């Protein structure tokens, strides 16, 4: 069985007043894609609106509820991130273990942005245990990509304090082994554990311009930079430094 993931709410993408309900937990949302789709279980749901209509038509074309906004919930029920999901189709429904009026739904859906290995960082956020730096360092390449995706999709639900210009951010380069680990370390340096400050060059360019926690001009003090830079491709490093220079960001190599 897939690992149990966070609860969520679903609302029709076509009509925001068409609320489909709230699931106490999910499984399969971060499983590897199969033919571009995932088989997800929504646990402890009281189906409403378009989702309820789809439940009543399981096995027919009417079981396709449509596209939806799926909002992930933390342990207190607060919203912590959102995914757009395509073609939610109800495949099965059975009584939930808890609650006479609740059901567990098995649905098929498409969601390219819910990356494999994103489950653990979401669980850290759900339980409030993403509370110290460096937790991403134990992850491999695909895990780091999942970590960055969660940082990105969570940032809209996180109030980032806008720092004044002139702040010095300390980037620890000891665990920078590739581009994704660079972004993990940079996001943490600027916005704390699990923080986001880009996950590709285009996103870095957006972040360096302001409104993402740091206000230019500011300084990045890159500690242990020699070892980190030896692992990064020269063209990538050159583009990073160029982006920072264009936005008035000083990079101090230590």
Question: Can you walk through the features of this model?
Answer:
The protein has 254 residues and is of the alpha+beta class. It is built from 7 helices and 11 strands. The strands form 2 sheets. It has an 8-stranded antiparallel sheet. Strands 9-10-11 form a 3-stranded parallel sheet. α2 (119-127) packs across α3 and α5 (201-208) runs parallel beside α7. The protein is elongated, with a radius of gyration of 21 Å. The protein starts with a strand and ends with a strand. The relative contact order is 0.11.
Count all strands and give the number: 11
H/E series: EEEEEHEEEHHEHHEHHE
Span between N and C termini? 47 Å
Supply the helix-strand structural class. Answer: alpha+beta
- Helix tally equals 7
Q: Characterize the biggest β-sheet.
A: 8 strands, antiparallel
Q: What percent strand?
A: 25-35%
Residues in helix, %: 25-40%
Overall pLDDT level: 95
- What's the Cα radius of gyration? 21 Å
Low-confidence stretches: none
Query: Which strand order does the major sheet show?
Result: 1-4-5-8-7-6-2-3
């Amino acid at each position: 069985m897939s690992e149990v993931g966070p609860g969520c709410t679903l609302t029709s993408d076509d009509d925001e007043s068409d609320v489909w309900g709230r699931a106490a937990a999910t499984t399969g949302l971060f499983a590897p894609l199969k033919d571009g789709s995932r088989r997800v279980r929504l646990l402890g749901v009281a189906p409403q609106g378009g989702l309820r209509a789809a439940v009543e038509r399981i096995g027919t074309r009417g079981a396709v509820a449509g596209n939806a906004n799926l909002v992930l919930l933390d342990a207190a029920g607060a919203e912590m991130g959102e995914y757009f999901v395509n073609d939610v189709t109800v495949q099965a429904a059975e009584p939930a273990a808890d609650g006479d009026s609740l059901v567990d739904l098995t649905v098929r859906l498409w969601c390219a942005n819910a990356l494999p290995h994103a489950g653990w960082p979401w669980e850290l956020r759900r339980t409030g245990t993403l509370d110290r730096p460096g937790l991403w360092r134990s992850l491999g390449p695909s895990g780091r990509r999942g970590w960055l995706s969660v940082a990105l999709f969570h940032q809209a639900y996180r109030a980032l304090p806008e720092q004044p210009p002139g702040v010095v951010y300390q980037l620890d380069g000891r665990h920078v082994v590739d581009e994704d680990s660079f972004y993990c370390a940079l996001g943490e340096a600027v916005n704390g554990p699990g923080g986001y400050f880009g996950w590709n060059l285009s996103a870095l360019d957006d972040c360096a311009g302001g409104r993402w926690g740091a206000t230019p001009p500011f300084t990045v003090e890159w500690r242990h930079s020699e070892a980190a830079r030896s692992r990064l491709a020269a063209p990538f490093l050159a583009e990073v430094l160029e982006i920072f220079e264009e936005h008035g960001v000083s990079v101090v190599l230590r």
